[in-house]
What we know:
Helix content: 10-25%
Shape: globular
Number of domains: 1
Number of helices: 3
Low-confidence stretches: 142-147
Radius of gyration: 14 Å
Number of strands: 8
Strand order of the largest sheet: 1-2-8-7-6-5-4-3
CATH architecture: 2-Layer Sandwich
Largest sheet: 8 strands, antiparallel
Distance between the termini: 33 Å
Amino acid sequence: MQSRPQVRLARTPDGRRIEVSxxxxxxxxxxxxxxxxxxxxxxxxxxxxxxxAPDRFISAGDEGKVRVLGGPWVSFAVTFADGxxxxxxxxxxxxxxxxAEYLGEEQCRVVFEVPLLAAxxxxxxxxxxxxxxxxxxxxxxxxxxxx
Length: 147
């Protein structure tokens, strides 16, 4: 059930956003773990090269810094996280939302919610979804690394 990334306009808890999603034949919790694991963000996030965060796995209220590709360290704050969806502000600006939706046993949909004013970021999210698919489907042993 692996699909190609899909793009659509949708209403989210943060208003209208562009949703970039991909269905994957993996357990939703594995996808959620990857999305919230700050140690793995550089593995799947095309624009993230390093992360400084208070904990390995994010939670609401966390603040830290990400180093962006070809650029400086930028502050972030996790504004919402409930076990299914998390959002953040980057450099004080509302950024992408992240979801892992249950579609059935060993099936999920990974979704990025892109603010309308950041529509140019859609190709980056499509690339991130491809990276996430590769990690979850081809490198299953790496997602369970511990300190």
